[in-house]
Design goal:
This protein is an alpha+beta fold. The chain has 23 helices and 16 strands. It folds into 2 domains: 250 residues, Penicillin binding protein transpeptidase fold (Orthogonal Bundle); 281 residues, 3-Layer(aba) Sandwich (Beta-lactamase), CATH 3.40.710.10. The longest helix is centred in the first third of the chain and has 33 residues. The protein is elongated and about 100 Å long. The relative contact order is 0.09.
């Protein structure tokens, strides 16, 4: 009893001190107004950086992947139920609409209660102060931080309306388990939008932020339920709900139904995020600047800016609409993984829809997991003879009156010190262009490449945008795929799509990038390049068909009225390639070891042809 009497006496003497503190704060705020420029630098009351979810949708408009570290789903205040607002206002800050960011009377009450009971049981932070703490300050408990918090709260109260502050609060409160905001908590804990929750469920959610660890409903459900009832009793006491309503809400059964993070087809979603970087860079003019960089350091700096822009855009929360065909993606992954039985052998592939020129399926590797090496777009390997249709034969037909029956010397050839040989060291006499293509004769291909001219041939493949092909690749070895680095399955499949009708349109997985309201932020421009004449297309399709029927592609089954392909093998059988198309799809597949070594035994088993055949099926 004596202790309580002493406590009350101390409180009586302390209250005048609190009002003096309030006056001092008011004086400081006047000073703040006179130094507004300085305060705007010190108190940066701008929106904090958050990481909003990124949602990906397939060609049918269905969500197949979500990317987020923090689950957020902010809503305007008007979309948050009144009862949810009342729960926090009545339990956290009854004077919210009257005070100016901080509440001296509340500080005094908290001081009185805590001193009288010798325990810290009642806080004094207003909703505005809590917003300041969430957005701008640390949570350390020091007097300096507390005083700073009061200044910030007063400034925030001046710069924002009460409704704006309340909206910030309800959208940024932490609900545990990396969930921020009451709307996000609704979808995370109940798998329902907030406007479908009953009042008991709203009160249950409102119980969590007071101490997200203590009231984590996944670990301490009963504690959360007890606090829910305490909040309902506060609303009853304050006349928001009746005693009868209290009993109804208290006895309503709470059943959690946790949201499951969509994470299907990681190979495709990973590529989508990589493509997003290119889309943003192109849309904002960074791609052109990178291409025209004066030196390597400038290029590196611009690439860093491009990546940072992607991070910034992703943090705002996006809806990415894609061309994914989920059924085909699933079937392709299962079929190719089943075929990749040899230990350590991997594959990368991409499938393009001929009608839309969109990437509808990708294969990143057997047992691929998110953040693994992605063999569809990261595996840059020499393409071998798979490059011949693009760099040698189609340019040949474009450059003169050559036909499939034009004769060409298949004998030995040396151009300077470069002396290519045929597979197995075979030497041929005169052969037709079609025969040289069918059996992939290297010496004939180099002679034809020489006729076209290196510069002219490379000009034809420029529209395809092979990222790793540079000026140093402009040698006669390129006719056989002898690049310093090479190409990827996605790049090669895209280039082969030009043999559909002679027109090349850059292939993409992304259809549109939208904000949460559905406004289009980014979209690939419609680009069409007339790469090959109808005559060249006809000849190339005929020769690729002949490869399937009579040449190195024998064993590839017909799935539609047309199937054409070209195989490729690099030195010592380190890489196996097939590129081609049928009536529905265009595809390219690479097979090999991540650390190059001979896979001749796999070539003999025609594993690459079997994978290619799988990709052309529906």
């Amino acid at each position: 009893m004596l202790k309580q009497i002493i406590g009350f006496i101390f409180i009586l003497f302390s209250i005048p001190i609190l009002f003096v503190v309030q006056e001092a704060i008011a004086m400081e705020l006047k000073t703040v107004n006179s130094f507004k420029g300085k305060m705007s630098e010190t108190i940066a009351l701008s929106s904090g950086t958050v990481n909003a979810p990124v949602t990906m949708k397939d060609r049918n408009g269905l969500i197949f992947a979500e990317e987020y570290v923090e689950w957020r789903d902010p809503l305007p205040l008007a979309s948050i139920p009144l009862f949810a607002r009342q729960l926090f206002l009545e339990s956290e800050d009854t004077g919210f609409f009257e005070h100016r960011g901080y509440d001296v009377a509340a500080i005094a009450r908290a001081f009185a209660v805590n001193t009288a009971t010798d325990t810290v049981r009642q806080g004094a932070s207003t909703i505005t102060q809590q917003v300041v703490r969430m957005r701008f300050l640390s949570t350390e408990k020091t007097y300096e931080r507390k005083v700073t918090e009061l200044f910030y709260a007063a400034e925030l109260d001046k710069q924002s309306t009460k409704d704006e502050i309340l909206e910030m609060y309800l959208n940024e409160m932490y609900f545990g388990n990396q969930v921020y905001g009451i709307s996000a908590a609704s979808t995370y804990y109940f798998s329902k939008p907030i406007d479908e929750l009953n009042k008991a469920e709203l009160a249950f959610l409102a119980a969590i932020p007071n101490n997200p660890s203590l009231y984590n409903p996944l670990k301490h459900f009963e504690r959360t339920k007890i606090r829910q009832e305490r909040l309902l009793s506060i609303l009853t006491k304050n006349g928001v709900i009746s005693a009868e309503e209290y009993e109804v809400h208290k006895n309503t059964v709470i059943e959690l139904k946790l949201k499951k993070k969509a994470n299907a087809y990681p190979a495709y979603s990973t590529y989508v995020l990589a493509e997003l970087t290119d889309l943003i860079a192109k849309s904002e003019g960074l791609s052109e600047k990178i291409a025209n960089a004066k030196n390597a350091s400038e290029k590196t700096a611009l690439e860093a800016i491009s990546k940072q822009r992607t991070i910034e855009v992703l943090s705002t929360g996006l809806i990415i609409e894609t061309a994914l065909n989920p059924g085909k993606q699933r079937r392709d992954e299962r079929a190719i993984s089943f075929l990749l039985k040899p230990e350590g052998v991997q594959a990368g592939a991409a499938v393009i829809d001929n009608a839309t020129r969109e990437i509808i399926s990708v294969f990143a590797g057997k047992e691929y997991k998110k953040a693994d090496f992605h063999r569809a777009y990261q595996a840059v390997r020499q393409p071998g003879s798979a490059i011949k249709p693009l760099l040698v034969y189609a340019p040949l037909f474009e450059s003169g009156s050559y036909t499939e029956n034009t004769p060409i010397n298949g004998g030995s050839i040396c151009i300077g010190s470069y002396c290519p040989t045929n597979i197995g060291g075979s030497v041929y006499g005169n052969v037709s262009v079609k025969e040289a293509f069918r059996h992939s004769h290297n010496t004939a291909a180099v002679r034809l490449f020489q006729r076209v001219g290196i510069q002219e041939a490379f000009d034809f493949i420029e529209p395809f945008g092979f990222k790793s092909v540079t000026e140093q690749d402009m040698t006669y070895a390129a006719a056989l795929g002898g690049f310093s680095k090479g190409t990827t399955p996605i790049e090669l499949a895209g280039a082969y799509s030009s043999f559909i009708d002679g027109i090349y349109s850059p292939v993409h997985a992304i259809r549109a990038v939208k904000d949460k309201e559905g406004n289009i932020l980014y979209q690939w421009p419609q680009e069409k390049n007339n790469v090959w004449s109808p005559s060249t297309v006809s000849k190339m399709r005929s020769m690729m068909q002949d490869v399937v029927l009579n040449g190195t592609g024998r064993g590839i089954p017909y799935t539609t009225t047309y199937t054409g392909a070209k195989t490729g093998t690099t030195d010592h059988y380190k890489d196996l390639w097939v590129g081609g198309l049928n009536d529905n799809y265009t595809t390219a597949v690479w097979v090999g070891y991540d650390r190059p070594q001979s896979i001749k035994h796999i070539s003999d088993q025609k594993l690459h042809l079997r994978i290619f055949s799988t990709l052309l099926q529906d």
